[in-house]
Specification:
Layout lengths: L20 E4 L4 E4 L2 E2 H7 L2 H10 L5 H13 L5 H9 L6 H10 L1 H4 L9 H26 L13 H10 L6 H18 L6 H10 L5 H12 L7 H15 L3 H9 L18 H14 L7 H14 L2 H5 L10 H8 L6 H21 L26
Antiparallel strand pairs: 1-2, 2-3
The structure holds carboxymethyl coenzyme *A.
Family: Belongs to the citrate synthase family.
Keywords: Acyltransferase, Transferase, Tricarboxylic acid cycle
GO molecular function, one term: citrate synthase activity
Length: 388
């Protein structure tokens, strides 16, 4: 009706112009601010990439040090917030708890909630980046009934998160270094992905002039669903179900084709050839999981499942390929993260992207409130009964 075009799921609608991330879905290209993710994954580190995504340029060494120092200085969370996190159901899903905690940041830091004040937005940016790992680790420690571990300012961003999570049980030596590098690389590969569901959500919420904490909390909630970030958890649960039920891979794929279940970790709205992140992550998974003679059974299963799907015309005709979430879970699991923490790791990685989009939108000359239209298909005018 009228002048509007129906576009379910916004599959064909660009709602903004952006300088942050370039994707060519047909060619499998993903670049942040012009740099390919393959290049960044090998040569950079997550903090530098976060800076690049948020501020637009790779930092000079002094800028990176300043950024890193600010994050260290702000890594603690207020005692009241710790008490609030501790009071939430400890067996609740960490994504639910994390979104709730982030939502309250505006209440603790009302000096950084004004979107019209760049200095306040910058302060909020630092606070979010600095505190999200601390919040996430506290939620995890509570979930396993262990005392929370506060930030250690002698450690880098990723190592500090690992230490707050696993404490003395963190892998050490060569294995510890390998895990730390792997988490760093996975965070890089998740740092931004243009207008995915959660980032679009952050922009929509921010478009009403809501503060950045409220907007990012909304992004965390959007990420939690199994069609989006929750897929990394869903993949692992799927692999475990296949293993435990003893169903053959062929029979499982028949169930997928009969539309009883989706093949989690497969398919993407934009990538119709391959997901460049999944290629990198598969290599990482083999580095981590093929280290010794004991092959990881879920990784082996994932490899077989991928190979079988890629030979099946149902998947090739629909251009369904493994996405970023297909192999991340098996890696996180080997590191000791429980399944329900996988999407939390995605959120920590995606935070720079959310923040960058919120900030870019504020300075977009075309900035206005997000307000999609609809096609009305309900009944025509009716009279209230009994009114003659
Ligand atoms: N398993 C089986 N069939 C699928 C799958 C799948 N994973 N994904 C899409 N299809 C089929 C779908 O049924 C449809 O078939 P038909 O045309 O016969 O009806 C066709 O492929 C097109 O699917 P669509 O639902 O229109 O695709 P979409 O762009 O709306 O959805 C998606 C994209 C990622 C939500 C979807 O592929 C999916 O649900 N995948 C599984 C969940 C997943 O891995 N999500 C992670 C996405 S990547 C990063 C992230 O956001 O976390």
């Amino acid at each position: 009706t009228g002048m509007t075009t129906l576009d379910p799921g916004f599959g064909n609608t660009a709602s903004c112009s952006s300088k942050i991330t370039y994707i060519d879905g047909a060619a499998g290209i993903l670049r942040y601010r012009g740099y390919s993710i393959e290049d960044l994954a090998v040569n950079s580190n997550f903090l530098e990439v976060a800076y690049l995504v948020i501020y637009g340029e790779l930092p000079e060494p002094a800028q990176l040090k300043e950024f890193s120092d600010k994050l260290r200085d702000n890594a603690d969370i207020p005692a009241e917030m710790s008490a609030f996190i501790d009071a939430m159901p400890r067996n609740g899903h960490p994504m639910s708890l994390m979104a709730s905690a982030v939502n309250t940041l505006a209440a603790y830091y009302d000096d950084s909630v004004d979107p019209s004040d760049d200095a306040q937005v910058e302060l909020a940016t630092i606070r979010l980046m600095a505190k999200l790992p601390t919040i996430a680790a506290r939620i995890y420690r509570n979930s396993i009934g262990e005392a929370p571990i506060g930030p250690d300012d002698s450690l880098g961003y990723v190592d500090n998160f690992i230490r707050m999570t696993f404490g003395d049980n963190a892998a050490s030596g060569e294995l510890g270094d390998l895990f730390s590098k792997a988490v760093d690389m996975l965070l890089i590969l998740h740092a931004d992905h243009e207008l995915n569901c959660s980032t679009a959500t952050v922009r929509v919420v921010g478009s009403s002039q809501a503060d950045i904490f409220a907007s990012v909390a909304s992004g965390i909630n959007a990420l939690s669903g199994p069609s989006h970030g929750g897929a990394n958890q869903a993949v692992l649960e799927m692999l475990e179900e296949i293993r435990d039920s003893g169903i053959s891979i062929d029979d499982f794929l028949e169930r997928v084709k009969a539309r009883e279940v989706r093949l989690m970790g497969f398919g993407h709205r934009v990538y119709k050839n391959f997901d460049p992140r999944s290629k990198e992550i598969k290599v990482l998974a083999s580095q981590i999981l093929d280290r010794d003679e004991n092959p990881d059974e879920l990784f082996e299963l994932a490899l077989k499942l991928e190979a079988a799907a890629l030979e099946d015309s149902y998947f090739t005709e629909r251009k369904l390929y493994p996405n970023v979430d297909f192999y991340t879970g098996v890696i996180y699991r080997t590191m000791g993260f429980p399944t329900n923490m996988f999407t939390v790791l995605f959120a920590i990685g995606r935070l720079p992207g959310w923040v960058a989009h919120y900030r870019e939108q504020l300075h977009d000359p075309a900035f206005r409130i997000a307000r999609p239209r609809q096609h009305y298909i309900g009944s025509g005018e009716r009279r209230y009964p009994g009114q003659g």
